[in-house]
Amino acid sequence: MAVQIPYVREIEFEYGACERVSPLIRRVVANNPSAFTYKGTGTYIIGEGDVAVIDPGPLLDAHLDALLRALEGETVSLILITHTHSDHSPAAKPLKALTGAQTCGFGPHGSGQNRAFDDVQVEEDGDMDFVPDVELRHGDIVEGDGWTVECVYTPGHTSNHMCFALKEEKALFTGDHVMGWSTSIVSPPDGNMEQYMASLRLLLTRDDEIYWPTHGPAITEPKPFVRSFIEHREDRERQIVEQLAAGRTRIQDMVPIMYAAVDKRLYPAAARSVLAHMEHLVARGIVRSEGRPSLSSEYRLA
After folding, report:
1. C-alpha angle with apex 72: 66 to 76, nearest 5 degrees?
2. Per-10-residue mean pLDDT for the chain, 302 residues long?
């Protein structure tokens, strides 16, 4: 039986409106819904007066205008970026120009990779222009008037993915690492399943009480949710091994069976996720591939 993930998908909001979701957190949702962004990018504002902005979002004039209205009369000291996909970081540049705030993140797109392949692309556009003013590392602390944020490095969805923990509320801004409405896509070369699984297990060691993903609603029972994500990925591995045992040796033949309940338009993304699992299985000696693991490789059990 497939692992049951306790998804949380209900969210009430109005595009462009600034909504207070906790004593120290406000959210403005961009009007960029899609199969990858759910209802849109949720940009978070931390604090009052002296504030930080997390994931300013895509280059949409209406969203930038909404942020500026929400920030009127306040000082933006920091712009924090969870990662550099085009629905998260591009608006950092104009927001910085208008507010004078420093941009902060792990690094440019791909900067966390420990290997690079140059013949495949990520499934979403990377923001190749973003370079943070301040490079953050795991455990770093940034703070302002009344708020303290700890940096939690969580590579996997991308190699430069960083979560941010608001210590005053035991709240973790999880970007795309953990979302309530969907699993996260892990797409090589910048996505890495070994890193992703390690990053999920890291969250189980923490005492965060609520997650605020960039897309969708809050997750109010974090640890059971994270455990279900880990079990889901382990189940996907078992499915791949079963497919190989049944004689299906190519990813393109596995996807329609493994993802039979999924919209076919998402099959290309699903194939990249299977590739990420294949890389992880090959690295551990469970599976062998004809040449370097790729979407077109032929695989067999070791």
Report:
1. 95
2. 88 97 98 95 98 98 98 98 97 98 96 60 73 98 98 97 98 98 93 97 98 98 98 97 97 96 89 96 96 95 96
